[in-house]
Amino acid sequence: MRQLGISGAWVHEPKIFPDGRGSFHEWFRAPDLAEAAGHPLNLAQANCSVSARGTLRGVHFADVPPGQAKYVKCVRGAVLDVVVDIRVGSPTYRQWEAVRLDDVDHHSVYLSEGLGHAFMALTDDATVVYLCSQGYAPQREHGIHPLDPALGIEWPAGVTPLLSDKDAAAPTLAEAETQGLLPSYDACRAYVEELRTG
């Protein structure tokens, strides 16, 4: 696992074993993730989304505690996966980092509780699977507009973003902060420490 510039986010870059029949790789290894994050992933739900080229999902996050950690992989096509630090008080607050996930390199991204997540499909039928530490709970789920100029996420040029009505109506980061929707860095750190100490 390679740590990203935002604390609480890592990339898994597996070794791929190709042969005449195809290829094999390990896309999730619980011990590797536990070593990186300091605690195991409590798997509560697994999701799969299929998206047309240009589909932009996110920026999504959940109240902390308990938040929702995610382990994300693209199993068909390609997406630009983005982690956004929305934790008020974090040294990297408002910063984002993008990782291309595709069916060639087979990288995966893990983001811990309290981080925002979004991705844009770069191909038709881009299929993303993600493992979640908590199940979907609408009353705890929130969003930030992924095209918020203050965030300045550099989505691929020449691709028209396709947003759901819900994501298109999401507040800006500043509005979400004013409304008290964003998790605090201290609360996220305290919750992750609880997970580490059991």
Remind me, CATH topology?
A: Jelly Rolls
Q: Treating each run of at least 4 consecutive H or I residues as one helix, how many helices?
A: 4
Q: Would you identify the CATH H-level superfamily?
A: Jelly Rolls
Order of neighbouring strands in the sheet with most strands:
1-2-10-7-12-5
Summed over residues and divided by their number, the pLDDT gives a mean of 97
Query: What would you call the shape?
Result: globular
Q: Ranges with pLDDT <50 over ≥5 residues?
A: none
Question: How widely separated are the two ends?
Answer: 22 Å
Structure classification: alpha+beta
Largest sheet: number of strands, sense, barrel closure:
6 strands, antiparallel
User: Fraction of residues in helices?
Assistant: 10-25%
**Helices and strands, in N-to-C order?**
EEEEHEEEEEEEEEHHH
Features:
single chain, 198 residues, alpha+beta, Jelly Rolls, six-stranded antiparallel beta sheet, five-stranded antiparallel beta sheet, 13 strands, globular
Question: Can you describe what's shown?
Answer:
The protein has a single domain (2-197), classed as Jelly Rolls, CATH 2.60.120.10. It is 16% helix and 34% strand. It is built from 4 helices and 13 strands. The chain has a 6-stranded antiparallel sheet, with no helix packed on it. Strands 9-8-11-6-13 form a 5-stranded antiparallel sheet, with no helix packed on it. A two-stranded antiparallel ribbon has the order 3-4. The longest helix has 13 residues, at 185-197. The model has no long low-confidence stretch (mean pLDDT 97).
